[in-house]
Every structure is written in C-alpha cells, then in structure tokens.
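Final report, closing paragraph on structural work. Over the funding period we assembled a curated collection of sequence-structure pairs, and we close with a single example.
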Amino acid sequence: MNNNKKQIFDNSTKLYSFITSQLSSSLSPVRTRTVVNVIYISGIVFMIIVFLVLLWINLYSRRCWCWHDTPLNHRFYHEWIITRSIRRSTDTSLSKNQREKRLSNNNELLS
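Its predicted structure, as stored:
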C-alpha cells in the first residue's frame, strides 16, 4: 500500500515537471513580454474607450445624468414640479398690483 502511494506521487511529480517544462520551453521570454505588453495596452485602450463613451453620454444627454435610470413618467412629473415651482417663484416676485391685474385679466377672460 505504501509502495502504491509512492508510485502515485512519483507519477504526479513527473507529470507536473513535464507540463511545466513544456510550458516554459514553448514560451520564450520575448514572446511572454510581447503578450504581457499587448494585454496591458489593450486594457488601457479599453479604459480610454469606456471613459470617452461615458463622457459623450454625459455631455450630450438632454436630461440629468441621474435620471437615466428613472422611469419616464417620473421624469416628466419631476419636470412638471420644477416648472411649477419656477412659476410660483416668479409669481411671488411680482408686485401686488401686477398680481391684481393678472387676476382681473383672468376673470375677464372667464366671463
């Protein structure tokens, strides 16, 4: 039994040394360096492309960046609230006489 384990260990060691010798002989240091450089450069190019795409989306989108993941009806509701608050703020900045004129004009149009 002990001899059998020793033989299995020897065979696995031989297999491991055979695989590592084949790998090291098939890849020369120059080729390994070239492969590493290609992977490194392609990673940098990929990151630059992703950066430019995100920059393009951010600069040329017509909506706020944070709205891209919100449903469409929430976007329009949010815009409606903004325009309503802008109108209210301009209404409060009007003088009392101007508000009365506007109300009288609205009443004339309704009658």
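The two ends are 110 Å apart (CA to CA). Helices lie at 2-26, 29-60, 72-93, 96-110. We thank the funder for supporting this effort.
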